[in-house]
Amino acid sequence: MFEAEEVKQKADQKDFILQVVKEQPLLIEWASEELRDDKEVILEAVKVDGGALEFASDRLKDDKDVLLEAVSQAGWTGCYASERLRDDKDIILAAVKSDGQILYYASERLRDDKDVVMQAIMKKPIILKYASKRLRGDKEVAKAVLEKTTKVFEYLTDDLKKDEEIQLIMNPPEEGGK
Questions:
Q1: CA distance 78 to 27
Q2: What is the per-residue DSSP string for 41-83?
Q3: Cα–Cα distance between 162 and 160 in angstroms, integer?
Q4: Cβ distance 44 to 28 under 8 Å?
Q5: pLDDT in tens, 145-160
Q6: DSSP code of residue 171
Q7: What is residue 81's three-state secondary structure?
Q8: Residue 7 and which of 65, 106, 134, 146 are 20 to 30 A apart at CA?
Q9: Which of 100, 153, 159, 105 is nearest to 134 (CA)?
């Protein structure tokens, strides 16, 4: 086990930091600024714990390879993505497959992407509230999310709430009724 003090003392020694992050990736926080901007070091860290992305340089938070590795390991780390990568379908799709909540951080364009929204609502139905109005009015999206939970009904568009099929999902006929 490495100690933060030891890491701070050797913060600029790449070989040492590479060894550290393979075992305790979050100790990257104590590495030098230069090493937190070193793609090889950050990739090693996020392979073990995507959360290490928090301590990467802004430049590496804008590196697609680094982000894909981090979100594949821990979808929630998509929140650290640069603005540019929050609009990258590959990144956001990889993230929402494990953590639907990341739709909240996606660009407006991707909140209006049916593939992305469908993946997100399958993992976290309530995230529908952050989908575009167009998709909150899409019957296929609505049916898919209402199968998971009817608690999201309030986030559907008013027109869709009145739809006969949607009303049947919300108010199914009683079994064996008259």
A1: 20
A2: HHHHHHHH-GGGGGGS-TTGGG-HHHHHHHHHH-GGGGGGS-T
A3: 5
A4: no
A5: 999 999 999 999 999 9
A6: S
A7: coil
A8: 65
A9: 159
